[in-house]
Design brief:
Strand content: 15-25%
Helix content: 10-25%
Distance between the termini: 55 Å
Number of helices: 2
Radius of gyration: 22 Å
Structural class: alpha+beta
Strand order of the largest sheet: 1-9-8-7-6-5-4-3-2
Order of helices and strands: HEHEEEEEEEEEEE
Largest sheet: 9 strands, mixed
Length: about 280
């Protein structure tokens, strides 16, 4: 089991102590909230490039999970879906959410930073009110996130958001390649979110995944660009037009004329024992 303790939040909190006092207690009441002390994250943020996590060959997977991933690739090569669970419109979950399949909006409030995702409305709440981890909480695909705002350069404005996310449930994969996370769902994810100092319309999220399917923590950096001033927000409903049908462990496809189709060569049909007769 990898060590899941993280000094980043503690260091961030330490950096924040003096600054928070000078800033009038940003974790205090809503009346004391001054948005000018926070980075300007308004607008519509879009990913750079394809919605892939990273180069799969560089993933530090254990031997067990490397074998699972390779079996998944073989299944996908024959027309299956492998270990990608989202074909039935399950939420991507963390950290896959941060692939940002559709544009993202970030809303900063006194106690919570909201990441609003258009894709399946897979939004995140990052609590920045100084709370501790709850003793009991029902796991979710996006997990439970606690963050700390940090004034890194001491200029009286926050410029970095440190986040830790726990309590995720599965199944989850990093992206549509089926790159898997461990089935025990004990994943811990740490993020360092900040604007580019020289390009205010560029946002970086340095993400570290600690997971039992990995031999060591895996860190990548995602970049997002801010779009036009008055964006149009589309609605994305995964279930609308989704032709995938999963029965048991088999994935089939619904044809345009409403009939169930195989997706792999020589795929067996579903068990129809509970039907008295079949349609001719």
């Amino acid at each position: 089991m990898l060590n899941r303790s993280w000094s980043g939040i503690a260091v961030g909190a330490a950096l924040c102590v003096g600054t928070c006092a000078a800033l009038g207690g940003a974790l205090g009441s809503a009346q004391a909230f001054d948005e000018t002390r926070y980075p300007d994250l308004k607008g519509q943020w879009q990913r750079i490039g394809a919605p892939r996590w990273a180069e799969a060959s560089k993933a530090p997977l254990t031997a067990e999970y490397r074998a699972i991933f390779e079996a998944n690739l073989r299944d996908q090569a024959t027309g299956g879906q492998g270990t990608d669970p989202t074909i039935t419109c399950l939420p991507p979950g963390m950290p896959r959410v941060m692939n940002v399949y559709e544009p993202m909006e970030i809303v900063v409030t006194p106690h919570t930073t909201h990441m609003l995702m258009q894709h399946i409305h897979d939004s995140r709440r990052i609590f920045t009110d100084g709370r501790d981890w709850p003793q009991e909480v029902e796991p979710t695909f996006a997990g439970y996130s606690i963050g700390t705002w940090v004034d890194q350069d001491g200029d009286g404005r926050y410029d970095v958001l440190l986040v830790e996310t726990r309590n995720m449930k599965g199944p989850r994969s990093y992206d549509s390649t089926g790159l898997p996370l461990h089935q025990d769902n004990r994943t811990v994810i740490k993020e360092r979110i900040s604007l580019d100092k020289n390009e205010t319309n560029a946002l970086y999220d340095e993400i570290t995944v600690i997971d039992d399917a990995l031999t060591q923590p895996w860190t990548i950096t995602k970049k997002y660009l801010r779009g036009k001033k008055d964006p149009v927000w589309r609605e994305t409903v995964c279930a609308e037009g989704n032709q995938h049908v999963v029965i048991g462990k088999e994935n089939y496809f619904m044809s345009g004329d409403g009939y169930l189709m195989p997706v792999k060569k020589n795929q067996v049909p579903p068990d129809l024992r509970y039907f008295g007769k079949t349609r001719q």
